[in-house]
Amino acid sequence: MDQFAAFKPFLGVVEEQILGLLGGEQPNPEDSLIIAARHLCLQSGKRARPMLVKIFGDTLGVPESRLLDPAVSAELIHAASLLHDDVVDNGMYRRNKPTVNARWGNVVAVMGGDLLLSNALLRLSKFDARVAQHGLAVVAEMTRAAINEVQARGNLDLTLEQHKAIGAGKTGSLFGFCGVAAAIVLGGHEYPQKQQELLEAVVALIAVAILTSMVFWMKRAGRIMKGQLQASIDRAFAHGGTPWALVGMAFLAVLREGLESLFFLLAAFQQTFSRLPAIGAVAGLAVAIALGIGLYKGAVRMDLRRFFRITGVLIIFVAAGLVAGALKSLHEAGLWNHLQTLAFDWTQTLPVYSVAGSVLSAVFGYNDHPTVGEVIAYFAYLLPVLALYLLPARHATPQHA
After folding, report:
1. Taking a C-beta distance cutoff of 8 angstroms, is the pair 126, 352 a contact?
2. Among 228, 244, 357, 376, which is most buried by a count of CB atoms within 10 Å?
3. pLDDT of residue 274
4. Rounded CA gap, 220 and 392, in Å?
């Protein structure tokens, strides 16, 4: 009987996550760091650390979906330490194969280890800050133990306690992290987080319904709105209305949005000493004022039908991002655990923490490492809704007697 059979499904997902992180099935052969990291990480190791995370998590009752990132991170930290150890020890073989430093040199081995380590800590940052902090503390402890081991070479007078301290620092600390991470995930966030993710999913789906109905209303109204607005203004002026009443109505209509922008800018100014927020705010106000004057004077003419059509397409993309995000939230809430294989990994190409990634994430719900389910949900909404929206409007034809 295979005593590890119960772990195989979980370890299979861990393997998929690591494979996706390291370039997937067809990595770029020119990316020496990825190729070198794959040389070590994709060998048939025991995966003892992910198994420990699963054992601790099952004991505490943590849902399996919440254990994947700590398990992958623990294995990546372990792999990074092996790459660095082989450089320090000038090791030539590991697991019956040439080491990374033997094939690609020390520079690639060290940088490959740093790449794995940074990705491990990035994954831990999704959770309670204590998880990442403990991960950093473990890496520091492993580093101190490694240098102690180097300094102890050739010393035949080491005590048993010193041997134990080196072993505990290099190996035991990461084993301990597997249990601590599972406990923090449960105790710090699991039940509140589960409810929060469910609420986020529900709110996102409601927002999708509202946005979808709004874009189709915009499609219908865009054809006649300009004429209706002009006719209403002409009637108001004909009955003694003044331009100031129109100005006041426009002012009150955008007052709430203006206050929100004001508070946002105040927070940005207080959190940074850079002049860029102020420059951006002044430039944005100047452009808004120029557009307003241009529209009023007639220098800028806007085809509302085309304007609504373009903004409608953008809103549909936003809603598609919300659908994918809702599925991710349902997974985090423990209600959806299918199609969790990594679709692609762009954490190195277009990470969400980059400027472009942050904008795409905030506006369109971009995710640099989505699952297959999230990608399917995104296009299952986007393609049919966009096709229906772009269909030509039907015009009623007069009936002949």
Report:
1. no
2. 357
3. 62
4. 11
Could you please report the per-residue DSSP string of 232-268?
HHHHHHHTT--HHHHHHHHHHHHHHHHHHHHHHHHHH
Type of residue at 390: L
Strands 97-98 and 93-94: antiparallel
Give the tens place of pLDDT for each residue, 190-234: 445 667 777 788 888 888 888 888 888 877 766 666 666 667 767
- Buried-state track 167-189, b at ≥16 Cβ within 10 A, e below 16: eebbbbbbbebbbbbbbbbbeeb
Q: Could you tell me which of 145, 178, 169, 171 has the C-alpha nearest to residue 49?
A: 178
Helix/strand/coil percentages in the chain, nearest 5: 75, 0, 25
CA distance 328 to 335: 10
Residue 94 three-state SS: strand
Burial of 47 (C-beta count, 10 Å sphere; 0-12/13-18/19+): buried
Q: Which two three-digit tokens encode residue 243?
A: 């331009």
| Residues β-bridged to residue 94 | 97
Q: Which residue, 375, 367, 327, 369, is CA-closest to 344?
A: 369
Residue 183 to residue 189: CA distance in whole angstroms: 10
Q: Where are the alpha helices (DSSP H) in 2-128?
A: 8-21, 32-41, 48-60, 64-89, 100-104, 106-124
